[in-house]
From TrEMBL:
Highest taxon of source: Bacteria
Record flagged with keyword Methyltransferase: yes
Subcellular location: Cytoplasm
Name this polypeptide is given: Protein-L-isoaspartate O-methyltransferase
Gene this protein is translated from: pcm
Function comment: Catalyzes the methyl esterification of L-isoaspartyl residues in peptides and proteins that result from spontaneous decomposition of normal L-aspartyl and L-asparaginyl residues. It plays a role in the repair and/or degradation of damaged proteins.
InterPro entries registered for this protein in UniProt: PCMT, SAM-dependent_MTases_sf
Gene3D superfamilies, A to Z: Vaccinia Virus protein VP39
Entries under CDD domains matching the protein: AdoMet_MTases
Major localization class: cytoplasm
A Pfam family of this chain: PCMT
EC number annotated for this UniProt entry: 2.1.1.77
GO molecular function: protein-L-isoaspartate (D-aspartate) O-methyltransferase activity
Family stated for the protein in its record: Belongs to the methyltransferase superfamily. L-isoaspartyl/D-aspartyl protein methyltransferase family.
Amino acid sequence: MAYKFIDNYREKGARKRLVKLLEKRGIEDKNVLKAIAKVPRHYFFDETFWGKAYEDIAFPIGDGQTISQPYTVAYQTELLHIEQGNKVLEIGTGSGYQTCILMELGAEVYTIERQRSLYERTIQVLPYMGYRPHFFYGDGSKGIEEHAPYDRILVTAGAPMVPEIMLKQLKIGGILVIPVGSEKEQKMMTILRVAEDDYERIELDTFRFVPLLGDEAW
Ligand code: SAM
């Protein structure tokens, strides 16, 4: 894929319209909207498809994977309630767009991808754009034990259940956001670790994610 990093008036205008649309769809967190307004989503697309970059749709990024729909990115990010300096584990780097949004909110991001080609691409593209998260290649369905605990954990692929091992990597007061369900559709879940062995779970709207694959997943 040939990347080009030019952000001209056409893309800036389209990004503003996307932010307005997300507001209309119910995204309220001003900081999340500001981050969406800032990160050039078209940088993750081949120039041929720039016209699609600011539509509220998921889009193929190769290897059978997708860059998530902007609404989904905004929805999951809002649920995380990121605070400046939060240590965030993201499972499913994909294009890296969501990673940039998390970093715009002041998070220190640990991000893991199991598809080698996507991993190789993001380790080049993100630093070029000025984003330097901690990149990992491998199966994130087990979290990343060696860097735990995390303030927040975000899973960007659909899981069959909540991996117990992931819950244990949350700090007390930490939040996990994960879509859980069948391979066809999942309910968004937020899980707050209230105490060592006490978790509060909330089930929210239905989404359709690509499957989370791995030892603790499909
Ligand atoms: N957030 C991404 C973005 O903004 O482009 C989109 C993520 S895409 C919907 C889901 C990603 O999760 C895919 O890139 C997929 O390869 C990855 N994935 C699936 N199972 C995984 C696992 N066990 N560990 C790490 N990544 C995984």
